[in-house]
Design brief:
The chain is an all-alpha fold and 134 residues long. The chain is built from 4 helices and no strands. Helix 2 runs antiparallel to helix 3 and helix 3 crosses helix 4. It is elongated, with a radius of gyration of 29 Å.
């Protein structure tokens, strides 16, 4: 009975590598509003570079203020400078990434509308396109 039960279970398992949905329909991934991986890597790199530069500036300013080799205040100045610079660039990067995704979303909406118009009346839309280009 065990062998037969295992074979029945095996027969019921989906054989395709695509994810199956309700009723065996193949599910496609939903569109995402995330910016591209390259854009996110560039934003992260900019935050790291700004933290390093802010740390160097903070260290230099606090080292100039101290005349007797004060390591503690210099390191505190470096930490404060790094955090301030990283926070500022992170805020700007978040705004840029958000605007990029909204811009891409708006461009896709415009493209879909244009494609829909072309499908409705191909002869009329080609004349409209020529008039709009001139």
């Amino acid at each position: 009975m065990s062998e037969r039960g295992d074979s029945e279970q095996h027969d019921r398992l989906p054989t395709s590598s695509a994810p199956a949905g309700i009723g065996g329909a193949v599910l496609t991934p939903a569109p995402t509003a995330l910016p591209s991986v390259i854009a996110r890597v560039i934003a992260f790199s900019a935050i790291v570079v700004s933290a390093v530069c802010g740390g160097l500036v903070g260290y230099a300013i606090s080292a100039l203020e101290c005349s007797r080799g004060c390591v503690g205040p210099s390191l505190a100045g470096a930490a404060i400078g790094a955090l301030a610079a990283a926070a500022g660039v992170a805020a700007i990067a978040a705004l840029v990434l958000r605007s990029m995704s909204e811009w891409a979303d708006q461009a896709s909406v415009t493209r879909r509308r244009r494609d829909r118009r072309r499908r409705r009346s191909p002869a009329a839309s080609s004349g409209d396109d020529r008039a709009a280009r001139q």
